[in-house]
Amino acid sequence: MPVNFEWEELIFSKGTLISLVLTVCFLLFTLKTSPIHPKGCRRLGLPPGTSNLDDEYDSKYASGVPQTQDDQGRPSWRVKALFSYPLKSCRGVELEASNVVPTGLEYDRQFTFAGYNNDKWNIRTLRNKGFNRLALVEPEIWIPDPSAHDYDPSSTEVQSHGVLVISYPRIAPAGIQGQLVKIGMALNICDKRRQFQVPLHPPAESKFPKVPVKIWKDSPIALDYGELLPASLHEYLESDPAKRELTLFRASASHTREIFRNAPTKEDIGFQPNTAFADAYPIHLLNMSSHRDVASRCAYAIPRLSIRRFRANIIVQGPSSFDEDHWKRVSIGGTEIYTSCRTVRCRLPNVDPDSGDRHKAEPDKTLKSYRRIDEGDPTNACLGMQLVPSKGEFILRVGDKLDVLETGLHQYIKMLAPGEKVEGV
């Protein structure tokens, strides 16, 4: 008996030793890695942890009356914050300034995820069941910087005019290894997020497939970046690569979606308004006081309703609540911009941008209780305005002055299928 006991103890000890060795090896491969810093590039946006919306819950924004006035005694209406959303339905990049091109802010909605069904690729957004996890996918825009110590004109990063770095929460594997990873993440010794990069623009020699991707009633040709998606991203978004449940598209500069409904004409501004993967228009504007009005009405369900839920490009302060409903043309920073129509809201803002959780009712319920104001779509609520720039390229900056040039009536025109015309137009 003593001999058998010692033999079993020895076997146990060897097994324990092997397990410990494997565990140590596993942990060595899962410890923190260095963040991606694309060669010869700099990151666009505000420094991490800073935001021009840090005071968004301050009661002063509820009234819409600013504390300061310009030199003529008029209210100082201005740009409060700027956001670009390079990857549709994912986290935004907050900016201090942005180039504006015909499709909107320079990098806005140039990328989108899509899934394959009914023999075609269809975009995937926060609206889709199970895709509320997109809220925690975070893109970073990196552009070439000739002053960088590692700048090389021949590098892949420079040749593609920069890269998009995409990060997302790490999913721990099953079993004891997964438990160890969770402990490591809790102790901050393992990476909590995964990341990879894709070219901002496809290099000349690239062979990315060009295929149609369906967005609402349009099917523009776009570049399929699916081969660049890591397995861990498929795992996070619970997609099966074999079933073509997920790919990444990059908008093609030669196949943007032209805008006709509610928009100024080519004769008006010298070019046909167009956009990439934005829902319908190049730029989305929100007014701080309008948002605070909505937030106060659904505070019973969401005490701190962030304006970021509504994913606007331009957030302005100064005007009173819903003053923007009747704007037709505005000037921002001295550039004329058309306010084409009101923003008709869906349930997408029900997703919390910080957690990815979807509220079952709010703020959609509150909005529909009093903001179904447009005769063009009486079943849905409106909040914010859709904009079309009056010239091809200019720069927007936080702090830019806002002036209203023209007001009038708005009536939303619903999205049409290709070739379909608005009655009477």
Automatic annotation (TrEMBL):
InterPro entries with a match to the protein in the record: MoCF_Sase_C, MOCOS_middle, Pyrv_Knase-like_insert_dom_sf
UniProt xrefs under Pfam families: MOSC, MOSC_N
A GO term for molecular function: pyridoxal phosphate binding
Protein name (record): MOSC domain-containing protein
Lineage summary: Eukaryota, Fungi, Dikarya, Ascomycota, Pezizomycotina
Signal peptide: none
Organism whose genome encodes this protein: Penicillium olsonii
Boundaries of every MOSC domain copy: 257-405
Listed PANTHER family: MOLYBDOPTERIN COFACTOR SULFURASE MOSC, MOSC DOMAIN PROTEIN (AFU_ORTHOLOGUE AFUA_7G05900)
